[in-house]
Amino acid sequence: MSFSKQVKEELSKLNNLTNKEELKYEFFGYLSSDNITEQNGYIKYSTENDYNIDRFSKIIRNIGIEDFDINVNGKIFCVEFSNQIKENRIDEEILKNRSLLQAFMRGLFMGAGSINNPESKYHLECGIRKKENIINIVQLMKENGINMKQRENTIYIKEGEEISKFLAFIGAVKSVLKFEEIRVERHMNNKVNRLVNCKTANLNKVLNASVEQVEAIRKLKQSGKFEKLDETLKEIAEVRLQNPDMPLVELGQKLSNPIGKSGVNYRLKKIIKISQT
Asked: CA 241 → CA 95, 218, 231, 262, 271, distances in Å?
């Protein structure tokens, strides 16, 4: 089961069906989604998610709409009923009531919302029938501490923390816990990968430098110039040949008179420069 469907399964089972006022605004949320069509005095809601249909049918029955039909066409579930509700408009003043806004957004998400599997990427969106409603919703959500963005007839979130806050806002508590668990695991995996990549890059840098140093030393030996080097350069050159993978700090500690990383680096660079003349 997809993560999106898991969220909707949880929301479909919320036990608040006796709160008529909240149910009415959850119903309005469904009606605002782009899965709603109107024709000849009838409203039709269509979805592939059976949890949506289960929740929606309970809502419309509990707010007093008895005359409705549920049809199944392939994978598509449809609820059709006569338009007994006046034109649905988002009343910004009423939706400043937090609990009603929560109910409305829950209905909107159930109606035409989706969320990606957080293991791959963070993305939540809801499709809205009327573009003019988007600005009101985005502003209302911002006032409640959740930053949503808009694109055409869609509102969306791409930040993990904001998605987590949105899920909590609409009542998907168990889904928030699961989302955060995946989010923490993903963060740790990314951190480990960055550390591994960083260490790999540093190791490659060390190995490449070592190869250049060893080649320079061998070149000096083959040309007979090696014996003309001063004793400090000869010593570091021999230590490097014996320890081609060793970091500079450790090389410096193997000298008769130990020196630091910068001193080792200086001597090896000098050897490379001499080999190029």
From this structure: 76, 9, 15, 19, 13
> Is residue 14 located within the same domain as residue 56?
yes
Whether residue 44 is found in the same domain as residue 155: yes
Q: Which of 115, 144, 171 is the last residue of a domain?
A: 171
* DSSP H stretches of helix in the chain: 3-12, 20-32, 50-62, 98-112, 132-143, 160-169, 173-223, 231-242, 248-253, 261-275
Residues 17 and 81 in one domain: yes
Structure confidence at residue 87 (pLDDT): 47
Classify residue 198: in a domain, yes or no. yes
Q: What is the pTM of this model?
A: 0.68
- Between CA 48 and CA 246 the distance in angstroms is 61
Q: Which domain holds residue 213?
A: 187-275
User: Closest by alpha carbon to 77, among 55, 108, 105, 100?
Assistant: 55
pLDDT digits (tens, 9 = 90+) for 219-235: 888 888 888 888 898 89
Residue 90 has pLDDT above 70, yes or no: no
